[in-house]
């Protein structure tokens, strides 16, 4: 539970205000990734300020950061909203992920250690448990984190941060365009990828990662939806 402060957090020293700004930005990012904040949701500054017991200045700093990260949009005279990615952006996000993550698993096959394989298997167990108990926020976070864990195993923090950004944008895409997504299928595909990595099988790991991302993209309804007014308003037999 958030403790009420006697004064707004941004009146404290600079580092304290910076920490609060980061905490607000991280909370909003997590809510987006875990599908608790839908695309198009308005982020009211005063309401967020009340929740975190800070001034609107601190909230505005967090929103500006999220805008730079392309997770929200700031509209003059209207405020902040969770971004609504276009169909073309959705395709581009998965195209970039395929390029990056194919190269990632190829390189990881060359350098991965037995200890790292064990870490991945422990992550897979956590994924499976979250899927089994229908923990939607938990499984969403874990299924996304799997890809960042792979990147960090190369010791390349820039790559991990880039992939983390792409995964956040993928979550926005999924919120808008995902059909009946199968978390169990994604989790099974992760298991197959780790099995290939444990064998240091470059060809299989690359093929499985490309197939996994392709399956996730195919589960999205990326074709424009045209509403036929006649179909919508045509009386049904019960109403005639």
Please characterize this protein's 3D structure.
The chain has helices spanning 14-33, 45-52, 56-68, 87-111, 114-132, 136-152, 157-177, 183-198, 202-218, 229-233, and strands at residues 42-43, 72-75, 79-82. It is mainly alpha-helical and 240 residues long. It has a three-stranded antiparallel beta sheet. Helix 4 runs antiparallel to helix 9. The longest helix is centred in the middle third of the chain and has 25 residues, at 87-111. The radius of gyration is 21 Å and the shape is elongated. The protein starts with 13 loop residues before the first helix and ends in a 7-residue tail after the last helix. The model is unreliable at 1-13 (pLDDT under 50).
- Estimate the global geometry from the Cα principal axes: elongated
Number of helices: 10
* Average of pLDDT: 82
H/E topology pattern: HEHHEEHHHHHHH
Q: Spatial order of the strands in the main sheet?
A: 1-3-2
Distance N terminus to C terminus? 55 Å
Number of strands: 3
Q: How many strands, what sense, and barrel or not for the largest sheet?
A: 3 strands, antiparallel
Low-confidence stretches: 1-13
| Protein structure class | mainly alpha
Radius of gyration: 21 Å
Helix content: 55-70%
- Our estimate of the beta-strand percent is under 5%
List keywords for this structure.
mainly alpha, single chain, 3 strands, 4% strand, three-stranded antiparallel beta sheet, 10 helices
Outline the secondary-structure elements.
Blueprint: H1 14-33, E1 42-43, H2 45-52, H3 56-68, E2 72-75, E3 79-82, H4 87-111, H5 114-132, H6 136-152, H7 157-177, H8 183-198, H9 202-218, H10 229-233
Antiparallel strand pairs: 1-3, 2-3
